[in-house]
Design a protein that fits this description.
By secondary structure, the chain is α+β, with helices and mostly antiparallel strands. Helices cover about 30% and strands about 30% of the residues. A hairpin with a 5-residue loop joins strand 4 and strand 5. Keywords: Hydrolase, Protease, Signal, Thiol protease.
Length: about 240
């Protein structure tokens, strides 16, 4: 009988020990961050179409509830749970940092698919106005529209089609894949000999030799076929942002 109770006691102690070890491991795996800017706390990652709860002040220490991807983390600030951009955070524990060489970057295609899906959702919402970048009312020109879409993935680009080309990696037309930028000349810029000067418009490649872009006040966000005669004649070059 004594042996039975002794065995039972050992089993209980082992269970308690394992439970404590598990709790200790879970606590150790929690990442702590401090905000280096004042990021928005949002209801969902990737897009600003979700609800914005407010701003997390610079210098705030937070526990990471979930590393959603390399661009957003899930946190709880005060009583509200949401997502903040990794652009404005610094990890307090080096092992948890995305700069860890063992960390795997998110697949480029997943990022591209989200950008394209978001662009399509905005087809009936965005209005075209040259020289405009109005996120609140969804009023953009071609390059502010692309800048806005990439920004939702934590990718910052300059405003201006030529500037976006110069800030990316040029690729050939045969190398095009989803999420790449396609640069087109307009009737006004087509006569220039210099490649950069020829660029007058930008769109996002969505596959099947098509682009989605904020085209004009008459068409707003639309999908165009690069095989059409006009786009064949006005195609300038392409560049890659998502590596």
């Amino acid at each position: 009988m004594k042996k039975f109770w002794l065995s039972a006691l050992v089993a209980v102690l082992m269970f308690i020990g394992l439970s404590q070890a598990s709790v200790t491991y879970a606590a150790a795996s929690t990442s702590t961050i401090i905000t280096t800017g004042s990021p928005y706390l949002k209801s969902a990652p990737y897009t600003q179409q979700g609800k914005t709860y407010g701003v997390v002040p610079k210098g705030t220490k937070l526990d990471v509830l979930e590393k959603t991807n390399q661009y957003y983390v899930k946190v709880k600030y005060k009583s509200q749970t949401g997502y903040i951009s990794t652009k404005y955070i610094q990890y307090q524990d080096k092992e948890a940092s995305p700069s860890n060489p063992n960390a795997k970057p998110e697949n480029w295609e997943k990022v591209a698919d989200r950008i394209i899906a978001n662009a399509k959702k905005l087809q009936s919402k965005v209005k075209y106005q040259y020289g405009k970048y109005d996120e609140k009312n969804f009023i953009f020109d071609c390059s502010s529209f692309t800048a806005y879409l990439y920004k939702q993935e934590g990718i910052n680009m300059k405003w201006g089609a030529r500037a976006q080309f110069q800030g990316a990696t040029e690729i050939s037309k045969s190398q095009l894949r989803k999420g790449d930028l396609v640069f087109i000349s307009t009737n006004k810029t087509a006569g220039y000999k210099d490649k950069v000067q020829k660029i007058g418009h930008v769109g996002i490649y969505i596959g099947d030799n098509k682009i989605i872009h904020n085209l004009s006040p008459e068409k707003d966000v639309t999908i165009s076929d690069l095989n059409s005669t006009w786009y064949k004649n006005h195609y300038v070059t392409a560049a890659r942002i998502i590596k």
